[in-house]
Amino acid sequence: MTVRDERTGSAPAPTGPVSTIDYSERIPNNVNLAGDRRLQRALESWQPKFLDWWRTLGPALPTKDVYLRTAIAVGRDGWAHFDHVPMEEYRWGIFLAEQNPERTVAFGKHKGEPAWQEVPGEYRAELMRLITVQGDTEPASVEQQRVLGNTAPSLYDLRNLFQVNVEEGRHLWAMVYLLQAYFGREGREEAEQLLKRNSGDLDSPRILGAFNEETTDWLQFFMFTYFTDRDGKYQLGTLKESAFDPLARTCEFMLKEEAHHMFVGTTGVQRTVERTAELMVQHKTADILEHGGIPLTVIQKYLNFQFSVSMDLFGSEQSTNVAAYYTGGLKGRWQETRRKDDHELKDATYRVRLVRDGKIVEEDVPALTALNLDLRDEYVADCENGVRRWNQALEDAGLEERLYLPHEGFNRRVGTFAEHFVSPDGELLSKAEWQGKAVGWLPNDDDRAAVAALMVPHYDLGDFAGWIAPPQTGINDQPVEFDYVHLREEALA
Ligand SMILES: [Fe+2]
Ligand SMILES: [Fe+2]
Q: Which residue ranges are recorded for the region named Disordered (predicted)?
C-alpha cells in the first residue's frame, strides 16, 4: 500500500496494475459504466447536481485553471497526470483498484469464503450506513475549506488546497457510485442526501462533529489535513479490508489519493514550525507575533484542538456495533492481513483505559468490542511521527521547546472520557478547574484573531507569507515558484 510517501508532492507509484480509465465517457471510469445503462443514467442525472454543489459550496476564489493531478492508467507519472485545468472541468470519475478474482474474506465468520461481489441481504443496512457516513465526510471538508483560497500563503499552497478539494469531491463520487450501483432506490436517495446535508448547517448538518467545525485559517487547514484526513486514512484502511469487494477496491484507490492530503498536512505544519523557530532564534523571544510568526504556544493549541476532535471520529472505545461489523466481515482492522492472529478474535482481549473512582486505570476487555480503540491506537502512533518531525525542526534550530500530542482523554466529546475533564498531560480535573485552564490549552478568540491577522493572500509567483517557510521542492518536479494557479481578474481586485 502506498500511503507512506508523505515527503514529496509527486503521486505514489501504483502497487499493482490499474486498469485503463475511459476518459471518452461523460463520467470517466474503469468500471465499464457503458455496459450498465441503468446505472449510467442514474449517475448522469446525479452529475449536474454534484456540479451545482461544487459551484455553490466548493472553492470560492475565482480561478482560471489550476495545476492538478488527475488519475489515469498509464503515463510518465505512473497512475497520475498533471496539467493546468479549469477546476469545474476536472474529470471527477469512478476509479476502483484492480479486482483480484481470487480474493477471499480475510477475517470474521466468513473468513476464507470468496469476497462478495454483491451486497448480502443480511448486511445491506449496515453496509449502506458505513458507505453513507464515509461519503458524508468527503464533501464536508470541501465546504469547510471553501473560503481558504482567499488567504493562501502562496500559489503553491493554493494549488495543494484545490488538489485536496477536487479529490475529496472525487471521493464523494466513489461512495455515490457504490450507493447507486449496489443499493437501488434507497442508495439513490442517500446519494441525493449527501449533497443536501451541509457542513455547519443548523437544520441538516454533516453526520460527524469534526466535519461541522469551520476551517478558519491555514494553520487549522494544515492541522485538519494532518489529523482529520489521517482519521480518513485509517477509516478507509478498515473498509479496504471489507468482504464487500467493490467497497474494498474503491477504498484502496482512495488511499493512494489520500497520501497527498497527509503530505499537505505534515509539511504544512512543518513549514509553519520551521518559520516560527527561525523567528524565535532571530528575535530571541517566543513572542513572535509582532514579527509576523505564529507563536509555538498557539500552534500547540491548534494541535490540541484538531487532535482531540479527530479522536472523537473513532467512536466509543468499546462498541458492540463494531464487533458485529468485524465478525460479519464488513470492516476489518488496520492492516488486517498482516496481523498474526486468528482474524476472528473470539477469545482475544485488548487493554483499554478508562476512568474508575477518580483515576485513569487499565482494563482488559474482549478485543472484538475494542476495535475502535485498536484502530485509534494505530492512528495515534502514526500521529506521533509527524510530531517527531516537527520537533526535529525545533531541535535543529537549537530550541528547547517541543510540541506534543495531548492525552487521549483531553477535550473529548465521545467515548469513555467524554464525561471527564482531563488536562493535556493526563491529569483528571474538576469541571471548574478544567474550564478555568482551557483558555491556555485550546485556541481562544484572541488566538484565532491573531492568526487570522497574519492570513493575507500571497499570489505572486514564488512569493510566500512571512509566517511559513517555503517548501523544499515543488509539485511533480516543478519549481517552487511555478505558476500553479492562474487567478481570474476579480480574484486579484
Ligand atoms: Fe477523502
Ligand atoms: Fe482526504
A: 1-20
**Residue located via cell numbers 524565535:** 280
Between the CA of 232 and the centroid of ligand 1 the distance, in Å, is 6
Q: Which residue has the cell 523571544?
A: 285
For the entire predicted model, the pTM comes to: 0.94
Residues around the ion ligand 2 (C-beta < 5 A):
229, 232, 258, 261
**Separation of alpha carbons 159 and 138, rounded Å:** 18
Q: Distance, CA 69 to ligand 1 centroid (Å)?
A: 15
Produce one character per residue of 284-309: b if its CB has 16 or more CB atoms within 10 Å, e if not. Answer: eeeebbeeebbbbebbbbbbbbbbbb
Residue listed under C-alpha cell 505572486:
460
Q: How far is the CA of 167 from the centre of ligand 1 (A)?
A: 7
Cell of 135: 461519503
Residues 6 or more apart in contact with residue 397 via CB below 8 angstroms? 274, 277, 278, 280, 281
Report how far ligand 1's centroid is from the alpha carbon of 293 (Å).
30
| Phi, psi values for residue 452, rounded to 5° | -60, -35
* Nearest ligand by distance to the CA of 259: 2
Encode pLDDT of 268-318 as tens digits: 999 999 999 999 999 999 999 999 999 999 999 999 999 999 999 999 999
CATH number of this structure's domain 33-492 = 1.10.620.20
Q: How many CA atoms lie within 13 A of 20 on its CB side?
A: 4
Domain boundaries, the chain: 33-492
